[in-house]
Each structure stands twice: as structure tokens, then as C-alpha cells.
Design goal:
The complex is a heterodimer of chains A (235) and B (345).
Chain A (H helix, E strand, L loop, with lengths): L1 E6 L6 E6 L2 E7 L6 H15 L9 E5 L5 H18 L2 E5 L1 H8 L6 E9 L2 E8 L6 E10 L12 E5 L6 H7 L4 E3 L6 H14 L17 H5 L13
Parallel strand pairs in A: 1-4, 4-5, 6-9, 9-10
Antiparallel strand pairs in A: 1-2, 2-3, 6-7, 7-8
Chain B lengths: L6 E6 L4 E8 L3 E9 L1 H4 L7 H23 L8 E7 L3 H18 L3 E5 H12 L7 E6 L4 E6 L5 E5 L6 H11 L6 H9 L23 H18 L5 H27 L3 E5 L6 H14 L3 E2 L3 H4 L4 H13 L23
Parallel strand pairs in B: 1-4, 4-5, 6-9, 9-10
Antiparallel strand pairs in B: 1-2, 2-3, 6-7, 7-8
Helix pairs in contact in B: 2-3, 4-11, 5-6, 5-7, 6-8, 7-8, 8-9
The chains are: A alpha/beta (235), B alpha/beta (345).
């Protein structure tokens, strides 16, 4: 079982291949690079370096969000294209779940965070007990300073992005200690590992996953109001 | 494989249509599927990019499967992938481009990134593969109003564009002003046939020796006419007459600048392409220009005027067949979307 993991939801896109539960390779793109430019290049380079052909891939696991709307869709469209060309099955895992999976082992809960828009983040809290992360709370879309209340008196361990600039405020308002966990593996590798575990347990993998947006789009938020969304004109 | 046997999968997601087509050779259409999003965007009076992108990712796979099924071919039968690379909404372009790149790369196929406007120009050759060249192309839609010259070697030279609104954009804005709904072009076209151009809507840049267009003035003139009439007669406006007056001004501008360009560049044919080329007055008026100048005027069938993937497949196949070994067709992993890409400049 050769699983290709792809993430475009975070600011640094990543790809990875796992074989029978072991990560063969992973690559992380630049936060400044275009996801469209980076993702297929990284897949192509990794396949060449590890003598993998596209036909060898049995499953593709893409992160479905929440995170960058455009990045999620570009990664998902890439996964669709690869799957249609090769016959590989394509499924998805949540971005926050994959982030929690990518975290090092911690005793208490861990809160995974991805960027929504300025001052707003998506977050969910998980408990890791050796296997796949178990959801405790969320996912929710909320102002970044609200993360301070996520610990519920326990030490707050954050992983992900979108909270760095407000970390001092979060630390000040949190009831307990606040730590930032570094990813033990790129999120695409975590996605591939999650897919492997699920497939090993005989869980459904899906065949054409959809993005998970959580929040409403800016267009929906402004519909009917004064509306800052500027419609474009077709063609 | 001979030129006539080439099977091209065309993909178009630059704006609010998810379109996939399969073409044999340079112009034989095996299938063409277009999913419009008018129902989604009509509530907003225009296209909302995020909503357009969300629909594209839902539809890209089922539309591709449907186009292949209608064509009676499978993924393994495809010889070439052609996809819109720009201009357009970046998030929308990235759905089609990412899918196409991955599909082509994993299948070991060449891929052509096509300019959307070039695709529209080439739509004229789908039904008329022997269209005389050079051809003066008027590309007129909701996002563009441009004049191009398509040379005998199939290269595009940009001649002029609009200083402000595109013609189709002006149609949509006037329709919104009159409370007519979206998209405005077809509604105004229908109402204009029931009215008379009795109101004074200026033809912008009419007497100036420029090939540029401008449609902001006519739109503002309609706004002023509406405000004046509301003060004089209330809300029961003569909408058909207003539509006829506005449409007449737009069509005269398109006609005048196309005629001026034809006299300046002496093309062997004229093509009118893009969504606004569906407009009945545009087809009739600019169509008549051919008789005056003694050259054919080619206006594609209405389904080839609005955004579609046949034109992308045709443009891609044409470029590939003329230059099969061009490295860019085989080394495209890092190809990115180009949201602001005006060809031939």
C-alpha cells in the first residue's frame, strides 16, 4: 500500500509518500511560492528520487481543510487529477486532525490551529493516546485571542499557524501554561499516516472528497448587507 | 498518431463556467459539456469569485467524466490535455490547471496552457477551419472588449481594448440598474427588440481616431436617463426603449471600431467572438460589415461564444500540432495560473 499525502491548506504546502505505515519521503514548499507551482513539482521530484511511478500509488490522501480555501482546492484538484490518471483511490482527512497527528506526543490535550483570515483562526482540540488523534472539541472558527480559553485550566499546547503574532496575549489570558509544539513531521506525511491507519482498520476511505470550509465565505457574510464583496462580471 | 487522430481533452475554469470538451484533430467536436453558475451568482448581481471556485471543485471530476463518456473515450485514449491558464479568477483557474497538470503528468501526456482570449479567437475556426487569415477578431464579453489580429502563422497581435468597462460588464450593470437580473446581456437583448432607441445614449469615442472602446459613458447616460424619467413619470419606466437605446450605443461602438480597424489593417476576414457575440444586434450589425468590406465575417454558434472548453481544446490542439516538440508542452509541472495575461501585447 503506497499512499501519497498532499496538503495545501497551510501556508507551506507539503507532499509525502508512506509505504506500509512508514514515511518514504516528504517535501515542504515555500510559504511564498504558489501552491500550483509547488505541489506537482514536489511530487515529481520525490517520485524521481525514490524511483516511484505514478502507477505505483494505491491511495491519495489530501487534507480537506479548514485552512486556505484556494490551497485546499488546488491540492484537491491535483489529487483528483492524479487519481483519474492512475486509478488510485482518493480520500481526505481534516487539516486540524492531521496537524494533531503531526504533533509530538504530549500528556494532555493539543489544540491544532490553521489560519482563517486576519485575526481569525480555525481550531480543534485533540487528545493523542498513541494512535490517531481523538477529537475533544471543535473545530471552530473564532478570533485568535479566544485560543486562550481552550486549555480549560490544563496546559495549552498549540500546533499549527495563525497564532504567532498574538501568542503574548494568549499566554497572558490563558489560565495555565501555554506551549507551542513543533511538527514532528510535515502535515502531508501525517495525512498519509492517518490514511494508512484507517485503511488498516478497514475504515471507509471515500472516493471523491470535498473541501471542509467551516466558516462561511466572505461573499456569504456580506450578502444582503452593505457588502464589501465586489462582484465581477463574466467572461 | 496523425494530426487528424489527436484526441484532446480541453478544460476551462477561468470564471463561472466549468467546461470540459473532447476534440479529435483540430476541430472535430466529440463532446462539449458546460456547467453554468448563473443560478449561484444571480443573487449577487455578478460573479462572486469564492462561490465560483467552490462550484468548480465540485464539478471538475463529474464534468470530465461526463465529457469523456459522451465522446465515447476513456482517460487512456487522450493524447493531449489543454487547459485555460489565464486570464481569469486565480482561484478558479487553479482548480482546472491543477487538475489538468496532475492528469497529464501522471498519464505521461503533453499539456498546453491556453490563453482564454486566444481560445475565444480560435473558437471562430472550430466551425470554419479554413477561415481566411489574417483575421481581425473582436473579442467581446463580460470581462473583455479587445481587438486582435490573428496572423497567417496563427500568432495573435493585440490591437486595442477598453478604457473602462467591458461591453458585457456594462450590459450587466445597466441590467442591475433597471432591476432586470443577471446575466444582463440576454435580458437587455430580448427587451431591446421590443423597444425603440429613442433616448440619447452617446457612442463613446465615436469620432476619435482610436481603436479603443469605452462603455462607462453609455452606462452613466442610462443612469441619468433613469433618474430623470423617475422624476418625470415615476417608477413605471419605458424599460424596453431604454434597453434599445443603450444596446444601440454599445453596438454602434463595437461596429465603428471594428470597421476602423479593418480599414487600417486590411484583414482577410473578421471574427466576432465572446459572450456578447450572442447578442442579436451585434451579430446582425457587425455581420453586415462583411458585405460592406467584401470579406467574410465569422461569428461562432452561440454555444461557442460563451465560455466553453471546445475553444480551449481547439487552441491547444492547434498550437501542439504546429509545434509538437516545444519543451513547454512536456515540462509543465511548475506551470502557474496567469490571472492577468493579455496575449499578443
Amino acid at each position: 500500500m503506497l499512499i501519497l499525502g498532499i496538503d495545501g491548506a497551510l501556508s507551506e504546502p507539503s507532499v509525502a509518500v508512506a509505504r506500509e505505515g512508514l514515511v518514504l519521503f516528504s517535501k515542504v514548499g515555500s510559504p511564498k511560492a504558489s501552491i500550483s507551482r509547488d505541489v506537482l513539482r514536489m511530487v515529481s521530484e520525490g517520485f524521481r528520487e525514490y524511483s516511484i511511478s505514478a502507477e505505483d500509488i494505491s491511495h491519495i490522501c489530501v487534507t480537506r481543510g479548514p485552512g486556505s480555501f484556494t490551497g485546499i482546492r488546488a491540492a484537491m484538484a491535483t489529487a483528483y487529477g492524479l487519481a483519474d490518471a492512475t486509478g488510485a483511490r482518493v480520500g481526505a482527512v481534516g487539516t486540524l486532525e492531521a496537524l494533531a497527528m503531526a504533533a509530538p506526543a504530549v500528556d494532555g490535550p493539543i489544540t491544532a490551529v490553521s489560519k482563517a483570515r486576519k485575526g481569525i483562526v480555525y481550531s480543534a482540540t485533540y487528545r493523542k493516546t498513541g494512535g490517531a488523534p481523538e477529537l475533544v472539541h471543535g473545530p471552530v472558527e473564532a478570533p485568535v485571542e479566544n485560543l486562550a480559553g481552550q486549555g480549560g485550566g490544563l496546559p495549552l499546547v498549540l500546533i499549527g499557524e495563525g497564532f504567532e503574532e498574538e501568542i503574548a496575549k494568549i499566554r497572558k489570558n490563558a489560565e495555565g501554561a501555554v506551549d507551542i509544539a513543533q511538527k514532528a513531521m510535515p502535515i502531508a506525511a501525517a495525512a498519509a499516516m492517518l490514511a494508512f491507519w484507517r485503511l488498516e482498520k478497514g475504515e471507509s476511505f471515500g472516493q471523491s472528497p470535498s473541501p471542509e470550509y467551516i466558516g462561511r465565505s466572505q461573499a456569504e457574510l456580506t450578502q444582503g448587507g452593505s457588502g464589501k464583496t465586489q462582484p465581477l462580471y463574466g467572461g | 498518431m496523425t494530426d487528424n487522430e489527436l484526441i484532446t481533452l480541453g478544460i476551462e475554469t477561468s470564471c463561472d463556467e466549468t467546461a470540459v470538451a473532447v476534440l479529435r484533430g483540430a476541430s472535430q467536436v466529440l463532446s462539449s459539456k458546460v456547467a453554468s453558475q448563473d443560478d449561484i451568482h444571480s443573487a449577487h448581481g455578478g460573479i462572486v469569485p469564492e462561490l465560483a471556485c467552490r462550484r468548480h471543485i465540485e464539478l471538475i471530476r463529474p464534468m470530465t467524466a461526463s465529457a469523456l463518456e459522451k465522446a465515447g473515450v476513456g482517460f487512456k485514449d487522450i493524447d493531449l490535455v489543454a487547459v485555460t491558464r489565464g486570464p481569469g479568477l486565480v482561484g478558479a483557474l487553479l482548480v482546472g490547471l491543477s487538475y489538468a497538470k496532475a492528469l497529464a503528468w501522471a498519464s505521461g501526456l503533453p499539456m498546453v496552457g491556453v490563453n482564454h482570449l486566444e481560445g475565444h479567437v480560435m473558437s471562430a475556426m472550430v466551425e470554419n477551419p479554413d477561415m481566411p487569415l489574417p483575421c481581425l477578431a473582436l473579442m467581446v464579453s463580460g470581462g473583455h472588449t479587445e481587438l486582435f489580429l490573428l496572423s497567417q502563422s496563427h500568432s495573435l497581435e493585440w490591437l486595442s481594448g477598453t478604457r473602462d468597462d467591458a461591453a458585457g460588464e456594462a450590459f450587466d450593470k445597466v441590467a442591475r440598474l433597471l432591476g432586470l437580473g443577471y446575466p444582463g446581456g440576454p435580458i437587455i437583448d430580448r427587451l431591446a427588440r421590443e423597444g425603440k432607441p429613442v433616448y440619447d445614449v452617446p457612442v463613446a469615442l465615436k469620432s476619435e481616431d482610436t481603436l479603443e472602446f469605452s462603455f462607462s459613458g453609455p452606462k452613466t447616460a442610462v443612469k441619468n436617463i433613469v433618474n430623470r424619467l423617475k422624476n418625470e413619470i415615476g417608477e413605471n419606466l419605458p424599460v424596453a426603449d431604454i434597453c434599445a437605446s443603450f444596446q444601440s450605443a454599445v453596438v454602434q461602438a463595437l461596429y465603428g471600431k471594428t470597421r476602423l480597424a479593418a480599414r487600417r489593417f486590411h484583414p482577410a476576414s473578421i471574427a466576432v467572438v465572446g459572450g456578447v457575440a450572442r447578442n442579436s444586434a451585434v451579430r446582425r450589425t457587425i455581420g453586415a460589415l462583411g458585405e460592406e468590406l467584401g470579406i467574410p465575417v465569422i461569428i461562432p454558434a452561440p454555444e461557442l461564444c460563451t465560455d466553453n472548453a471546445v475553444m480551449i481544446a481547439a487552441a491547444g490542439a492547434g498550437r501542439f500540432l504546429r509545434d509538437r516538440n516545444n519543451p513547454e508542452f512536456h515540462d509543465f509541472q511548475e506551470m502557474d495560473a496567469t490571472p492577468s495575461w493579455l496575449p499578443g501585447v
